[in-house]
Amino acid sequence: MDTGSHLQENSDVVISGAPLIAKAIAKAPAGEGCPRCGGYVYAAEQMLARGRAFHKSCFKCGVCTKGLDSISVCEGPDKDIYCRVCYGKKFGPKGYGYGQGGGTLQSDIIGLESDQAPRTTVIDTAVIKAAPGQGCPRCGGVVFAAEEVLARGRPWHRKCFKCKDCHKTLDSIIACDGPDRDVYCKTCYGKKWGPHGYGFACGSGFLQTDGLTEDEISASRPFYNPDTTSIKAPPGQGCPRCGGMVFAAEQQLAKGTMWHKKCFNCAECHRPLDSMLACDGPDREIHCRACYGKLFGPKGFGYGHAPTLMSTEGQSTLLFPDARPNSGRKAAPGKGCSRCGYAVYAAEQMISKNGIWHKRCFSCSDCGKSLDSTNLNDAPNGEIYCRGCYGRSFGPKGVGFGMGAGALTMA
């Protein structure tokens, strides 16, 4: 059997007798190192509290030396760190019911003999008067943070934050600030400051006539003119179409000016417009897209509502089968269309490596086929070709190349 003799003490093993000395920590300049030991703190081991870096091993409670983390650490006013229990003992509130073992109230000898609980003193902070204009608007007392309620930028006591008329307790949802710098509930605010007249105020579900006839009621009713265009605004501030005052409930914006909703229509065909259909014209009017195109859109061959080409001088349109201009001043050299030389505008330009072209001129120089970015080939002679014509004119030549090169032929 194994007796374990190989585990017995081996006399050949040499045990060092050197004393264990704590590892020395390089001291940092005053105010820059660990607040607990004063040594340098490197990024891999730092723990932050109060904007200062601690060693992880030094990040302990200043009283019970309990290890701390970011959840349990409490920063004391003496610039040290504590666990929650020690912080409560040292800096927490003191008195009846506070501190360690405060589950039962402790009194002096007189209280114990009479078997009475200690008397609690209730302090009415309303009797502590504040400086004029700085206290609670209702009672004038000093308002402390524990009982502060804000309204209209002024602090109120929580018990004073009530409706002035019905004394209903208020909160931030139902409080209404009145023009008399006091607070009201919604109902009292409506009665006192809301609109008045027929159909308004509490209990106005039906109108009461007090024996008046219909003609007398109609004669006493105020006149209401729903046409706000008759209310003229100062010059340059009203609706550009009618000049009337534009109110927020009916305004429409276009080109930085406000229009009545019923005036916001096309100046030509009077079609009602919205933000998707309105076009601001250079004449400071608004137009629908069709009328804007007729008045301010591009003109010439191929534009407008003419599916066929029309001549303005009576010539037959057969004279212009390609719809290209043949008169007028040409563009400067290198500035116009590479095919016809006339000016190219942004709405019709096509760009290639060698220059800009009209959309109607953007075709193969040999076969006339219309081109696009997928079949365009820029030739060294400055022209553009389709793939087939480019291969015939500038592609490789010789045996096996060219049209019908499926079989090799001998010269």
TrEMBL record:
Residues 32-93, 134-195, 237-298, 335-396 form the LIM zinc-binding domain. Keywords: LIM domain, Metal-binding, Myogenesis, Nucleus, Repeat, Zinc. Signal peptide: none annotated. It is found in: Nucleus. InterPro entries: Znf_LIM (IPR001781). GO terms for molecular function: actinin binding; metal ion binding; structural constituent of muscle. One of its GO terms (cellular component) is nucleus. Gene3D superfamilies: Cysteine Rich Protein (2.10.110.10). GO terms for biological process: muscle organ development; muscle tissue development; sarcomere organization. The keyword Zinc applies. This is LIM zinc-binding domain-containing protein.
